[in-house]
Amino acid sequence: MEVVSAAERRPTRQITVGDVTVGGDSPITVQSMTITKTSDVEGTLQQIYALAAAGADIVRCTCNEIEAAEGLAQIVPRSPVPIIADIHHQYRMAMAAMEAGVDGLRLNPGNIRKPEHIKAVAREAKDRNLPIRIGVNAGSLDPKLYEKYGGATPEAMVESAQTEMQYFDEVGFDLIKISVKASSVPLMVESYRALAEVTDYPLHLGVTEAGPPPAGLIKATAGIATLLMEGIGDTIRYSLTADPVEEAKAGRQLLEALGLRERKNIDLIACPSCGRAEVDVIKVANDAMEAFGEREIPLQVAVMGCVVNGPGEARDADIGIAAGNKRGHLFIKGQNVAVVPESEMVDQLVEWAEFIHEHGTEAALKRADLDKARREAEKDRAKLLEEQGDDANLANEKIVEIRKK
After folding, report:
1. What is the C-alpha to C-alpha distance for residues 357 and 118, in angstroms, rounded to an integer?
2. Could you give the cofactor binding note from the entry (predicted)?
3. What are the start-end ranges of the H helices in 178-333?
4. What SS3 state is found at 124?
């Protein structure tokens, strides 16, 4: 059974981006950003569709020139998800993007600083019922705030957001979500915590410029997951130096792992391999991930290296495979259901997972010859124990040495 341990979610206002709600009691959403030139309409749309297929609910495109705005006018009507225009420096590009029909804007208060420009954008957005993200970034903080606080601090980041909110408030605009991103995980976490104390607008979480995987994934997850587990955050984006599809996948997988979104695809768990492993667990696990591919089968799948301990250790998995005596032992919720040749392990795993997804666990158990599977599993366990003994990992020797210290 999955244990839910996240704190109660922070209450926020709710806004709508296209047909996607953000904040309030709506599901936490996943965002990413295209890396194509927005003027390349077909290339950008191809990437948007790939992002949507990978789990992105909202996609952002840069709007840094008039050709990009013209591209957005063609992209938005054909996009499968809402499109947000990313605006820096030129407030006129925000106006052009709204004219193009985008579903939302991201403004950087660090480089669009004239109050009259900010208010002009907010008035137009209000007339169009269009949300704006106040996208504060530690790397492009207003120099005056940087000087005032002696650097990019949580206080400086929050003040930047509050100043922008004040300009919006002066024109009666409140369709707002906010981010206070930094490449430093501690700074990012503390900035969002401080911001959550002073506003009830929905928050967009992210560690900016996290870098390439795997280090970038670790950094981004450390920051985003910490806040989500505290109940802070309404939409998320991984900022990786990688194909943006990897960002969408990572965001979706994180929310599924935290129990904050329903699982779309398998959650594969695998043992780290040990002295009992009868197969190359890493290879089998990778082969399984490749075989499941983009199938939307929301099950937890286990790949275990041995039949001695595998089914018991992974008894909570919906389905799993364990190796033993050159055979693969399929198990469902810890019960052995079939024995197949080792060469067919992955194919059978996928086939049974598809059956469970379509017909349910009980139907799968009824399909199986449980007595035969149990007998075969016991036979292979006994053979392995005879060959390897009951301490295949030499743990007892290590315990003896530990006790000598």
Report:
1. 51
2. Binds 1 [4Fe-4S] cluster.
3. 185-198, 215-229, 244-257, 281-292, 310-313
4. helix
Residue position matching structure tokens 């390439």: 212
159, two tokens:
């003040």
- Where in the sequence of the chain do the CATH 3.30.413.10 domains occur? 267-388
The single-letter DSSP state of residue 77 is G
* Residue 274 annotated in ligand binding: yes
User: Domain 14-257: what homologous superfamily?
Assistant: Dihydropteroate synthase-like (3.20.20.20)
Q: Is 63 annotated as a binding residue?
A: no
Q: Is 61 annotated as a binding residue?
A: no
- 């989500």: which residue's tokens? 228
Each residue's pLDDT tens digit, 98-152? 999 999 999 999 889 899 999 999 999 999 999 999 999 999 999 999 999 999 9
Type of residue numbered 321: I
Distance CA 367, CA 364 (A): 5
What CATH superfamily is the domain 267-388? Sulfite Reductase Hemoprotein, domain 1 (3.30.413.10)
